């Protein structure tokens, strides 16, 4: 197995974790080393990422630490402003004329987006029958239950149901799904795995990336996502997204089954950061998009304190759209977050707050500016909408960029 980074990684100047947090990370690292050992000395990077993020009680999303806001590792749009959720509720109201009056959210996190959508539905008398949250983490579900205790419409699920007709939402959920890493070597494309090596500074072995040895058919299936893969330079490293693609097929099957059972349409709205394939796999992006977040610091070392940091990769929106369309859905729209929120009426919702009420208006206005500004989240984040038997409002279609996929 070829080691990809023979020189030691530079020391990261990041906040020091508490003793309890460090103990949890060491427990998870021991579990990872044990799995590597029991699998012939190597596991796929996707499996490492799954363990680091989702191991019960130890993984980043399954543990008890705060993830969002000032005390967490990053801030999402719902955490910045309640107007984000209110805008989605207003769009859902328009879509409910074609779908069942139900919402299903994946990746609900703290429950803030659900709270804001449900609050807007209540205040604007939007007829929302049920709000499903698909949640695997018991710790996150407990937080959500506390926050949403006053909304009897909320129903928790632990898996994707077989049928659903309504509005599916996923805000920053695709980027947190485990990815495969691939590298172009002189012998061709290789999948990357995680192995161990003895440390010169610690009794605990360190984790490292190595090339895996697989047959040509397996590699070809992975890199089919990459356009012009053979033209990229030797040493090029990037991500491919088979788990996201499989998830999208499951969502498509659920919506199509819902249409067959109810005669009502269904729509899935994905908000995340990413690119179309022709921008994702640029020659100059030769180290991929993998990024880690720890206490509001971003860096690129996925092996730093496993379980205590987020690990994400940008979304290949072309691959996700293709998966949905190939599974039978319609590509309804692809646009920027700014265009999406403007079409949903976020500025009109902001105008409900009197300008004279500066204590309320100024923070809300500043948050909306961050959500819409091309220099902030407005252009970095994209929105992909797939569905069946649904037509989007004209106000949204005017911002459509589907041709760029």
Automatic annotation (TrEMBL):
The keyword Ribosomal protein does not apply. GO terms for biological process: methylation. GO terms for molecular function: methyltransferase activity. The keyword NADP does not apply. Keywords: Methyltransferase, Transferase. This is SAM-dependent methyltransferase. The lineage of its organism: Bacteria, Pseudomonadati, Pseudomonadota, Betaproteobacteria, Burkholderiales.
